[in-house]
Amino acid sequence: MLLEKSKAEMGPCDHALAGVILAKRGRHLIEYQPSGKQGDRKPVMTKNNYTIRTMTRREVGIAVDWAAAEGWNPGLYDADSFYAADPNGFLVGSIGDEPVSTISVVKYGDSFGFLGLYIVKPGYRGKGYGIQIWNAGLARLKGRVIGLDGVLAQQGKYAKSGFELAYRNVRYQGTGGGHSPADPAVVRLSALPFDDIRAYDKPFFPDERAQFLKSWIDQPQSAALGILRDRKLAGYGVLRVCRSGYKVGPLFADSPEFAERLFLALKAKAPAGSPIFLDIPEVNPAAVDLVKRHNMSAAFETARMYAGKISDMPMDRLFGVTTFELG
To answer: Mind listing the pLDDT tens digit for each residue in 174-205?
Structure first.
């Protein structure tokens, strides 16, 4: 997800010349120069002592903490899965030794990237630090299709960087616990070959995400379940513990009936009365029916946008988004 607090903190990638990003801010011209190494860029110090570089694993945790402070409610163990997806996919902007801005620009496979965790620390907003790290992030993903989840009101700004609206995602909140009927078709994902899970997941995402997926379905304090039809995987979902309550995501299934059975089984794994969240693509009417049937209420929504064209995904089988931060 992306956080915009002022007009100055968001803008298009204005110029890209021979791999050098130029962000014009008043009379200052800021350069972010690639080092030439694969997956790495040298930090460049600006006149105001602002540098942008790749995060360490510890700093990814800081970015997730900032996201929690902004109310995004990430999972308690999301940082490990995020870092597993692409250790070079996270940038931090610092003034001296103090981190003041973050962005994630995670690469998947050879053709896709996802942009999120775009945050400027309170007290440093409106000073141009956001647009510099935004441009640096776009440079990391040059030549790839890029996805993001952003607030609806900022669609015009994203459009200036080449992003187009695909659909809206809506976060719904309900209550955990409840009865789940015994269902022999619902099994633990850990009992299945990972290659089967990976193959089932593939149509729902624009490119390869095996490293992320391995970590995501094996988080501590989580439940990862699949549903079988004729001994083959016909859907799966993950429930993970968050700063507040629990989230279900992803939730993929071959039919609304299978999605319902998986959701009931996952929901029952959460403590009774605890908040439970499901982020759904609004373009899937069956997903909307599911949250309404369980008396869940909309909390907020995002605009899923892409710069470039992705292959068609089976939206009628997508009942829950994996994560707003990494897609």
So the answer is: 999 998 889 999 999 999 999 999 999 999 99
Asked if 132 and 118 touch (Cβ cutoff 8 Å), the reply is no
Q: What is the Cα–Cα distance from 172 to 162, expressed in whole angstroms?
A: 29
**Joined tokens for residue 145:** 């299709």
Residue 40, domain member (yes or no): yes
Whether the bond into 184 is cis, omega within 30 of 0: no
Residue 117 zone, left/alpha/beta (φ > 0; ψ -120 to 50; rest):
left
Q: Which of 82, 107, 104 is nearest to 93 (CA)?
A: 104
H helix or E strand, kind and range, residue 143: none
Residues 309 and 178 in one domain: yes
Residue 126 and residue 189 share a domain: no
CATH number, domain at 182?
A: 3.40.630.90
Dmax (CA) for the chain in angstroms is 67
pLDDT single digits (tens) 287-324 = 999 999 999 999 999 999 999 999 999 999 999 999 99
What residue type is 175 in one-letter code? T
User: How far apart are alpha carbons 121 and 129 in whole angstroms?
Assistant: 10
User: What domain range is 49 assigned to?
Assistant: 7-147
